[in-house]
């Protein structure tokens, strides 16, 4: 049972449709029928991901609707990127406590700006009343057999990370009032949290070159551990200068920057492994798509992820950011 009245629901859907539907020729039937019909290109496979954002868990009460719209798509783009896939079609389930046209317009703006930039069409969804939450299912395609999994890393592979994990967590602390908003780079850090950039073009560029990949949503330590467990391997990794965000070091101090880098979460960077013989090509492709990457270490046999910093072992704190 959906307790939003039918005329209001129709108006909400029409607002979303007019702003976000996009124009892809592979969408044969979009919003308006009982289901969407899309055409999967020949010799490709479908990749489907879903992520939900819930008020109080993934964003604060009163968070900017534009940011919520952007993030609801960005977190899913990041999962698609981590599979090495090309994003195409989105479904949006919106659970809202009441109908607020200006909230919906700003939400749609955040969602549609990113959808257009990435060539993603909104093809359906559902609209219900309840505590604010936004769930997006995103579908993309990958050439047959080319999806990049977590499980492909071998001992001896190098480990790379895009960007500087920890910045988004710094921004979240600033938004929550736990870190000063007066710091010189506060705006940049807040933007990294409110408007994360999924590394879609990097994921696509790495197709066929890397052995395993995961996106960094729950902190680099947790997510690299997941990749290693899936691959049945361990790793030695370096928490070095190049990995750390200089802005975050300046804002929060280097010790906090180290912790936020490994356990902060919400970065939506990519962490991947590849054979050393592909390293030059990987670095060149990342430069071509304009994303900085850092080689942080090496996959080893075993099951332990060992961090090193300044020549000593580093144990990530217990402050890992959990959604539950
Ligand atoms: P039904 O009762 O058959 O589920 P709805 O009235 O819920 O139909 O939906 C009508 C159309 O609007 C469908 O194509 C559905 O996918 C689309 N739709 C509903 N809510 C949303 C939404 N939040 N975002 C995008 N499309 C939506
Ligand atoms: Mg419905």
Give a written overview of the molecule.
With 324 residues, the chain is of the alpha+beta class. Helices cover 35% and strands 26% of the residues. The protein has 10 helices and 13 strands. It has a 7-stranded mixed beta sheet with strand order 8-10-7-11-9-12-13, with helices on both faces. The chain has a 4-stranded mixed beta sheet with strand order 3-6-4-5. The longest helix is centred in the first third of the chain and has 18 residues. The two termini are 27 Å apart. The C terminus is likely disordered. Bound molecules: adenosine-5'-diphosphate (ADP) and magnesium ion. The site of adenosine-5'-diphosphate has 13 residues, from helix 1, strand 4 and strand 5.
List keywords for this structure.
324 residues, alpha+beta, 10 helices, 13 strands, 26% strand, binds adenosine-5'-diphosphate
In round numbers, the mean pLDDT is: 93
Question: Which class of secondary structure composition applies to the elements?
Answer: alpha+beta
Strand content: 25-35%
Strand order of the largest sheet: 8-10-7-11-9-12-13
Distance between the termini: 27 Å
Helix proportion range? 25-40%
Poorly predicted residue ranges:
319-324
Total count of strands = 13
Q: Could you tell me the radius of gyration in angstroms? A: 20 Å
């Amino acid at each position: 049972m959906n307790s939003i009245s039918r005329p209001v629901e129709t108006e909400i859907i029409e607002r979303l449709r007019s702003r976000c539907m996009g124009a892809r020729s592979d969408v044969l039937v979009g919003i308006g029928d009982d289901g969407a019909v899309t055409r999967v290109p020949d010799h490709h496979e479908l990749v489907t991901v879903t992520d939900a954002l819930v008020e109080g868990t993934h964003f604060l009460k009163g968070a900017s609707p534009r940011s919520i719209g952007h993030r609801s798509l960005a977190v899913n783009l990041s999962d698609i990127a981590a599979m090495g896939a090309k994003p195409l079609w989105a479904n949006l389930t919106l659970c809202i406590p009441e109908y607020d046209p200006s909230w919906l317009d700003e939400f749609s703006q955040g969602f549609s700006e990113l959808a257009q930039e990435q060539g993603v069409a909104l093809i359906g969804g559902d609209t219900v009343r309840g505590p604010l939450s936004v769930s997006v299912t995103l579908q993309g395609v990958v050439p047959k057999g080319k999806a990049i999994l977590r499980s492909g890393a071998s001992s001896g592979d190098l480990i790379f990370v895009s960007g500087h994990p920890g910045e988004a967590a710094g921004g979240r602390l600033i938004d929550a009032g736990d870190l000063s908003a007066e710091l010189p780079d506060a705006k940049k850090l807040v933007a990294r949290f409110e408007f994360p950039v999924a590394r879609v073009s990097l994921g696509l560029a790495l197709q066929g070159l890397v052995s395993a990949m995961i996106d960094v949503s729950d902190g680099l330590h947790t997510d690299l551990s997941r990749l290693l467990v899936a691959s049945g391997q361990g790793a030695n990794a370096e928490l070095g200068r190049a990995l750390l965000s200089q802005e975050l070091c300046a804002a929060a101090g280097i010790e906090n920057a180290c912790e936020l880098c490994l356990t902060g979460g919400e970065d939506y960077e990519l962490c991947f492994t590849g054979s050393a013989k592909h390293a030059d090509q990987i670095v060149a492709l990342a430069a071509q798509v304009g994303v900085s990457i850092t080689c942080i270490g090496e996959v080893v046999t075993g099951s332990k992820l060992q961090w090193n910093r300044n020549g000593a072992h580093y144990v990530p704190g217990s402050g890992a950011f959990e959604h539950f």
